[in-house]
Amino acid sequence: MRRALFALGMVLVCGGAGLAQSANRPQATNPYLAVDSTRTYYLDDLERCPGILDLQSGDLWMLSFPEPVSDYFLTRQGIVEAKVTGQRVMLAGVGTSGSVPLMVLTDSGLAAQFNVQVKPGTGGQNKTVQILPGAGPKPGCPKAGGVDTAAPVATSAAPNAPAPVRQMPSSAPIAPTVASAAPVPAGPAIPVLPGAVYGSRFKSPTLPQGVIGTALPSGKSIQATLSVVNATTIRFEFRNGLGSPVIFNMADLNYAGQPAADTSGTFTLKPGQTAIKTVAFKSNVQNRLLGVTWAGRVTATGEFLTLRGRTPQ
After folding, report:
1. Would 21 be classed as within a structural domain?
2. What SS3 class is residue 170?
3. Chain centre to alpha carbon of residue 161
4. Residue 68 lies in a domain
5. Would residue 91 count as lying in a domain?
6. Would the pLDDT of 282 be above 70?
7. With CB atoms 3.0 to 4.6 Å apart as the test, which of 39, 254, 273, 308 could cross-link to 109 if both were Cys?
8. DSSP output for 235-246
9. Backbone dihedral region of 166: left (phi > 0), alpha (psi from -120 to 50 degrees) or beta?
10. How far apart are alpha carbons 19 and 24 in whole angstroms?
11. Is 26 exposed, middle or buried (CB count within 10 Å of its CB: 0-12, 13-18, 19+)?
12. Strand arrangement, sheet containing 304-310
């Protein structure tokens, strides 16, 4: 009898230990799932800092955007092939090696930039690139030459001086033509933000087609109404309601994937000013319902802003 009870006790002890070890044992992974290869970017960051996509020949990548994609642009063929489907861009490495810039336009007018690099290798891998809305927790591009061009640079001689705006040295500033329309109330000037970074406060409001703009949380905004003059010319009517001058560079205009025919020169919009700017392009821009972006800088703070919207009907 005692032997029987002893044997039963040993069975219970060993069984309990086995159950405890089973509970603590890590769960086996699914052998039919590969390693998670998702990469994350933020859409506002990609408007200024191109994302690096390092494919191997034969890879298939999926770029997943937070909103529908309207179009994409590659400067040459034979390195990668792309296809848009809804909010995704499928990217296939078809060349053996090389690099090519890629620009993806969304329905709201945002333009995401990428540098696509294809290198020789085993290839045949699937990867997902998740693009999230807004800016990342640490916005700003990597520094080039030791100076961060995304924020005002302080010096000992002028501690509060804003960062210089890129200009072509051989070009004089272009003075906009002042229209007869009533000026927009300017209100108080934008306060200076030391060390302001790209996209820190400016957001893209919901605008009708044919209007580009950006706004502060307070509601103050700067906008431009677009109208077609002819097949290769667009008229921009600006209204600056920010209460501070804003400088624009002709080289920073992107109209449906095209730069202006003349990318030299700058012009400044004063607070409360309504001004007309007529811009010519090399190719036909009529009936191209795509995104428009024009980057500028607030002279009082050094902050970058981007007017965004859609081409007119």
Report:
1. no
2. coil
3. 27
4. yes
5. yes
6. yes
7. 308
8. EEEEEE-SSS-E
9. beta
10. 9
11. exposed
12. 177-178, 274-280, 233-240, 221-230, 211-215, 304-310, 291-298, 246-255, 266-269
d(CA 167, CA 266): 7
Are 114 and 224 in a shared domain? no
Backbone angles phi, psi at 46, to 5 degrees: -70, -15
Helix (H, G, I), strand (E, B) or coil at 19: helix
pLDDT band at 179 (very low <50, low <70, confident <90, very high): very low
- Other residues' Cβ atoms within 10 Å of the Cβ of residue 79: 21
Give the count of beta carbons closer than 10 Å to the beta carbon of residue 148: 17
Q: How far is it, in rounded angstroms, from Cα 211 to Cα 219? A: 16
The set of residues, in sequence order, having a beta carbon less than 8 Å from that of 16 and lying 6+ positions away, is: none
Q: Domain count for the chain, please give it.
A: 2
Residue 8 phi, psi (nearest 5): -65, -40
The amino acid at 103: M
Tens-place pLDDT, residues 240-262: 998 889 999 998 898 888 899 99
Give a yes or no: residue 97 inside a domain.
yes
> What is the distance between the alpha carbons of residues 153 and 281, in angstroms, rounded to a whole number?
34
- Write b or e for each residue in 218-237: b if 16 or more Cβ atoms lie within 10 A of its Cβ, otherwise e: eebbbbbbbebeeebebebb
Could you tell me which of 257, 206, 265, 267 has the C-alpha nearest to residue 236? 267
The residue written with tokens 């809804």 in the block is: 86
Structure tokens at 184: 């927009």
The pLDDT tens digits of the residues spanning 73-103 come to 888 888 899 999 889 999 999 888 888 889 8
User: Range of 52's domain?
Assistant: 39-132
Burial letters 168-180, b for 16+ CB under 10 A, else e: eeeeeeeebeeee
Average the pLDDT over 53-64 and give the result: 92
Q: What is the pLDDT of residue 257?
A: 81
